[in-house]
């Protein structure tokens, strides 16, 4: 039985006051949650978020990490640094990183290695664009993203995969539960070919315009084990509604 996981990706949003208010609106309510819950603030808000979430059911992650552990890499933050702060998770290969920072599968794979070696739990994002879906390439794109970053990994302990169709991110367009389930089943099947991974035990999250109103239907699908939430994670009551739908 896979335990549900709901992760908030705050992207490049927030301020000290906002974080205080958002986390303050969730910690007490979520103290006895039956699902795993995490939030991923910007790097600069991680220490404050860790302090605010201490002792609660909410764990904290980062939205990215470097592929190396230290050195002359101006502007980068490494996986050991994040682990040292107290982060448990790191999102890798998000479509916004792929789109705006030209991240390719091999680099995402190197980041994944660095994350696992440091004891961070990686959340690997995959997903096709609208053009790729309309061209009938959705499964091939996702398969190559999985293969390209999971192949040759020595350890994939605790790996989580998030299916985020690019056309559903921040657009208000959600994949239908059936569309999402179809891809999740395909992802689980593809993971069976990755050595060292227990595909049946791997949690698969759906991401793309998830809200309190559509979460329940998505979570009722056999291979959807939770959500990676963007916009709705910036609103405590929406995020709580999504967590409740996963309980
Ligand atoms: P939205 O929930 O805003 O569509 O964002 C999804 C996402 O990109 C989470 O990583």
Parts with pLDDT < 50 across at least 5 consecutive residues: none
Order of helices and strands: EHEHEHEHHEHHEHEHEH
Q: Which hetero ligands occur in this complex?
A: 1,3-dihydroxyacetonephosphate
What is the name of the CATH superfamily? Aldolase class I
CATH class: Alpha Beta
Give me the number of helical elements: 10
Count of discrete domains: 1
Give a quick account of the main beta sheet: strands, pairing sense, barrel closure.
8 strands, parallel, barrel
What percent of the residues sit in helical stretches (DSSP H or I)?
Answer: 25-40%
Reported CATH architecture: Alpha-Beta Barrel
* Beta fraction: 15-25%
Brief digest:
It contains 10 helices and 8 strands. With 247 residues, it is of the alpha/beta class.
Describe the structure.
It is a single chain. With 247 residues, the protein is an alpha/beta fold. The chain has a single domain (5-246), classed as Aldolase class I (TIM Barrel). It has helices at 16-24, 46-53, 79-85, 95-100, 105-118, 130-134, 138-150, 177-191, 212-219, 236-246; strands at 5-9, 36-40, 58-62, 89-92, 121-126, 160-163, 203-207, 226-229. Strands 1-2-3-4-5-6-7-8 form an 8-stranded parallel β-barrel, surrounded by 6 helices. Helix 1 packs parallel to helix 2. The longest helix is centred in the C-terminal third of the chain and has 15 residues, at 177-191. The protein is globular, with a radius of gyration of 17 Å. The model has no long low-confidence stretch (mean pLDDT 95). The structure holds 1,3-dihydroxyacetonephosphate (13P). Residues 9, 94, 164, 169-170, 207-210, 228-232 line the site of 1,3-dihydroxyacetonephosphate (13P).
